[in-house]
């Protein structure tokens, strides 16, 4: 299995070669030269497998340069009930990601049983083991630079903390995450974890990651890699739970299932698209958005029109407050007939005009691809949270509520529909209380999370500042706790030892 860039400017490479790179050197995203195919007979043979066994089978299709025994060992040690045991009371944790049926033909895929209570754990825990394995084999190290709108950051940090040869530098939008999300990230005291709060939106943080990754000399010299869903290994690991959900939902290899997916960076739903390309019987993929409805607009018109941070709304489903979906490029690559020249043309137009419009042939391909979209407002998600609780006794987070709203509008009668869960409600207590009148239960072990000391450095959205910080991280002290209040130091100039000394004097 070889991988190529969506922009066609780099040689084909193997799975092990690309997992440490993130972005390709030409600025594109890695995709398989050809998607592996899964036959109906194979689907039949996969029935009855444990999640770890299924993960081994799916991953082996993408990682042809790795020994299956190594993949099996990584999957067997990652996907255990001991790791994925943080969900709702009564959940069958042995299934890792069980489908809970609220109605005969409508269910929720529980993806939030991992250590950070969000779906990102499903792939990130595996990536932690994979990175450590590959780094040891190559005798090298990795500095992970990532951006998060809330859940990716904590999932990455929990997966990578204490790992040999790995350091994590995670950018997050200052003041735009829930208290629980911030506490999960900023309370980590591990020496290889560094949090940077960027003054701006998630898109600003993501632009910095792309800018730093685009400086090939710096990227190579400082061993910069990515853990966001721009990393193909993340996407490949997410493909697994689509197969798992389908196997739980169906009895026949011909039965189709619809998936509704809360979407921000387009990675989660892209994994469903890839599963469909591999042969999984998927009737429809529903893209659920909040007030930041760039993807909704695209799937209704063929126009992809991004927004700047000033016009990206702060909403009650904050992990979806994204107006530039990085993984969208992989989908467009497929829609344009896997034409890298056309992708470059469209993304050049996007950079210049902040939008592009597909031609008639491409738009026809979108309409034939099985995608549809819906959007929700704050009032919509509050009403959905209350309705699902009142009718089914099942409490959902605001993002999953967006997914349920979309599913109810766009589902196909008579076809089973599964909504992918984003996170546990505990991560968004204020919104849950507004919806149902009480705060959601906090899983055991997380009761005092908000009271823990936090460390984070806040700085302007400037790629050069981030570069300097990365180079000199070992000399920085982030936060001290005084009188139960977290103090954040602002870095406004060049990150240097002199500035660090000044910061320390101010403590």
Short description, anyone?
By secondary structure, this protein is of the alpha/beta class. The protein contains 20 helices and 18 strands. β3 and β4 form a beta hairpin.
Describe this structure in words.
- By secondary structure, the chain is α/β, with parallel strands linked by helices.
- The protein has a domain at 93-116 and 236-436: Rossmann fold.
- It has 20 helices and 18 strands.
- The chain has a 6-stranded mixed β-sheet, with helices on both faces. A 6-stranded parallel β-sheet has the order 8-5-6-7-15-18, sandwiched between helices.
- The model is unreliable at 474-507 (pLDDT under 50).
Shape: globular
Total strands: the figure is 18
The percent range for helix content is: 40-55%
CATH topology of the domain at 93-116 and 236-436: Rossmann fold
Mean pLDDT across the residues is: 90
Q: How large a portion of the residues is in β-strands, by DSSP E?
A: 15-25%
Q: In angstroms, what is the radius of gyration?
A: 22 Å
CATH architecture of the domain at 93-116 and 236-436: 3-Layer(aba) Sandwich
């Amino acid at each position: 299995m070889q991988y190529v860039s969506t922009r066609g400017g780099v040689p084909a490479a193997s799975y092990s070669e690309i997992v440490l790179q993130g972005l390709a050197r030409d600025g594109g995203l890695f995709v398989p030269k050809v998607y592996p195919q899964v036959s109906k007979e194979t689907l039949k043979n996969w029935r009855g497998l444990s999640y770890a066994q299924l993960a081994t089978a799916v991953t082996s299709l993408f990682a042809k340069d790795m020994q299956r025994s190594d993949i099996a060992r990584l999957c067997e040690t990652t996907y255990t009930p001991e790791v994925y045991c943080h969900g709702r009371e009564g959940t069958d944790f042995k299934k890792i990601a069980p489908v809970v049926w609220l109605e005969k033909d409508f269910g929720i895929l529980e993806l939030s049983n991992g250590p950070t209570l969000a779906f990102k754990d499903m792939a990130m825990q595996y990536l932690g083991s994979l990175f450590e394995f590959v780094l040891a084999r190559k005798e090298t190290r990795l500095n992970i630079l990532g951006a998060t709108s809330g859940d990716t950051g904590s999932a990455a940090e929990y997966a990578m903390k204490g790992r040999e040869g790995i350091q994590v530098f995670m950018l997050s939008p200052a003041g735009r995450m829930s208290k629980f999300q911030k506490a999960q990230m900023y309370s980590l005291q591990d020496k290889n974890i560094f949090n940077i709060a960027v003054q701006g939106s998630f898109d600003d943080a993501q632009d910095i990651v792309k800018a730093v990754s685009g400086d090939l000399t710096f990227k190579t010299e400082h061993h910069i890699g990515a853990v966001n869903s721009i990393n193909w290994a993340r996407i490949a690991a997410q493909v697994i739970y689509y197969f798992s959900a389908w196997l739980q939902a169906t009895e026949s290899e011909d039965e189709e299932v619809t998936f509704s997916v809360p979407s921000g960076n387009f990675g989660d739903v892209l994994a469903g698209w890839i599963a469909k390309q591999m042969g999984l019987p998927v009737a429809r993929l529903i893209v659920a958005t909040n007030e930041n409805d760039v993807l909704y607009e695209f799937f209704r018109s063929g126009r992809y029109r991004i927004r700047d941070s000033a016009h990206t709304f702060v909403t009650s489903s904050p992990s979806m407050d994204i107006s530039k979906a990085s993984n969208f490029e992989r989908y467009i690559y497929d829609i344009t007939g896997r034409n890298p020249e056309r992708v470059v043309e469209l993304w050049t137009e996007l950079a210049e005009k902040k939008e592009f419009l597909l031609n008639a042939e491409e738009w026809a391909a979108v309409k034939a691809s099985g995608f549809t979209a819906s959007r929700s407002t704050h009032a919509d998600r509050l009403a959905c949270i209350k309705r699902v609780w009142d009718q089914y006794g099942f409490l959902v987070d605001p993002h999953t509520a967006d997914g349920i709203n979309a599913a109810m509008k766009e589902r196909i009668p008579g076809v089973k529909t599964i909504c992918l869960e984003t996170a546990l409600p505990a991560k968004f207590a204020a919104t849950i209380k507004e919806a149902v009148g009480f705060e959601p239960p906090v899983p055991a072990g997380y009761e005092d999370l908000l009271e823990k000391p936090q460390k984070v450095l806040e700085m302007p959205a400037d790629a050069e500042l981030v570069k300097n910080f990365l180079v000199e991280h070992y000399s920085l002290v982030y936060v001290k706790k005084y009188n139960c209040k977290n103090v954040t130091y602002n870095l406004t100039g060049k990150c240097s030892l002199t500035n660090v000394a000044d910061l320390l004097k101010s403590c």
